[in-house]
Amino acid sequence: MKYLNRYFNRFFQLMCSVGNESVAEYYAIALMSMLLFCNFIFLISISYALLGLKIDLGFDNKIIIVIYFFFTLICFYFLFVAKNKFVKIIDDFKNESSKQRKVGNLLTLGYIIVSVGLLIFGFYLMMLKNKGAI
Q1: Which of 32, 35, 39, 83 has the largest CB neighbor count within 10 A?
Q2: Whole-model pTM above 0.85?
Q3: In this structure, what DSSP letter does residue 6 have?
């Protein structure tokens, strides 16, 4: 849970820095949900491309994708936003040193880049599998 709180804090700070202070907590959980969904899609694509397991979760139906996304969004809402839990999380990280802040920002940026990169890599492996190259 500590890592989720750290990522939430970083995403919250990112949203505040771009001018969304009034709704930063909602944008932060939306960003976390999107990245978690990217990681989930990557795991499914790897299982198909490398292991040959075709996991059908109904992703060909757009309504199912929206339902999955909103489910993660609601879970993150109750973890971070409901009853102003995010205020305590933000207060816990206010006394960080500048070095801890820089390391946290780099880890968060790395997580974003790796998540998107792995999603693209997973789709590439699926493409190779469908062409018969793997």
Answers
A1: 32
A2: no
A3: H
